[in-house]
Write a structure and sequence with these properties.
single chain; alpha/beta; Rossmann fold; Histone, subunit A; 2 domains; 14 helices
């Protein structure tokens, strides 16, 4: 079966740089697996590749939505599967790169036929969250679907809301419905690569340094432009991205500049922790230390075997 490569890892682990280097060596095409890079105008805070980088190594699924528009895992699967088929037809290998683990899992495991959103149920859940807080709704989710709750952070309102909504509309836990789904990549051989430093303190330092660099490059002005639009809020999925929420709260007067810096770094480290938790349970994964000497050559040697077998 034709190969598909997943290049996964926590934020700030160097996935994009490695992917660009691999594209120069092999017949690969990059598909971005990032729930924030899909949005136009969100460049600095998402560490979106610069124009010169994209000229060397084009990325699919970047800048395809306005920040006011939602983009679901189901929409990603539709787009990614179409691109995987097109890239394979061009006699190239799809290289899916990113850190949105929910998207990777949905693509690998498939999506069940979940019910459409119920505006009435959603409004009731949002009102409950506003009164009691998302941890209270997470506790409710634990009672009706402990498996789903174990995968969701107590403050991840979007996913808590959806899991409870599915249960209230259907009476069947979300985790049970997801267990019956079918993968759209069944006709492909998936090779999963994970990139992360063995020393977690190195990753924490890189996250802090990168967030400070984003601020120096104009993250505040980027979010100020989004803030000034008037059609976005912290309830908009795009604005829940790590870093953007904290800058938004600073612009609205909820956080001082120093608090924004600290909370932005903390939120990004928490994101990295969740990503690593996903990866530790990922099946048949090949780990690479992002700090090892000759990293590109070692990963390239692995990819070379795939290219040869495809030939």
């Amino acid at each position: 079966m034709p190969p598909v490569i997943f290049l996964m890892g926590p934020t700030a682990s160097g996935k994009t740089q490695l992917a660009v280097e691999l594209v120069q060596k092999f017949p690969l095409e990059i598909i971005s697996v990032d729930s924030a890079m899909v949005y136009r105008g969100m460049d600095i805070g998402t560490a979106k590749p610069a124009a010169a980088t994209l000229a060397r190594a084009p990325h699919h699924l970047i800048d395809i939505r306005d920040p006011a528009a939602a983009y679901s895992a189901a929409q990603f699967c539709d787009d990614a599967l179409r691109l995987v088929n097109e890239i394979t037809a061009r006699q190239k290998i799809p290289l899916l790169v990113g850190g949105t683990m929910l998207y990777f899992r949905a693509l690998l495991k498939g999506l069940s036929d979940l019910p459409s959103a119920s505006q009435a149920v959603r409004a009731d859940l949002l009102a409950h969250a506003a009164a009691a807080g998302w941890p209270a709704l997470h506790a409710e989710l634990t009672r009706v679907d402990a498996v789903a709750a174990s995968r969701i952070h107590p403050h991840d309102g979007q996913r808590i809301q959806r899991a409870l909504e599915v249960y209230k509309v259907t009476g069947v836990p979300l985790s049970e419905q997801q267990a019956s789904r079918q993968s759209g990549l069944a006709q492909y051989t998936i090779y999963s690569l994970a990139l992360a430093p063995d020393d977690r303190s190195v990753l924490h330092a890189r996250i802090a340094a990168r967030f400070m660099q984003m601020l120096s490059e104009g993250l505040l002005e980027e979010v100020r432009c989004l803030y000034a639009r008037g059609d976005l809020s912290l309830e908009t999925p795009a604005m829940r991205a790590a870093g953007y929420r904290q800058v938004w709260e600073h612009l609205s007067g909820q956080l001082s500049y120093k608090e924004m810096e600290q909370r932005g770094i903390i939120a990004t480290r928490q994101l990295a922790k969740r990503q690593l938790t996903w990866l530790r349970h990922w099946p048949d994964i090949h780990w690479f230390d992002s700090e090892m000497p000759g990293l590109t050559e070692k990963v390239a040697a692995f990819v070379e075997t795939l290219v040869q077998s495809k030939s």
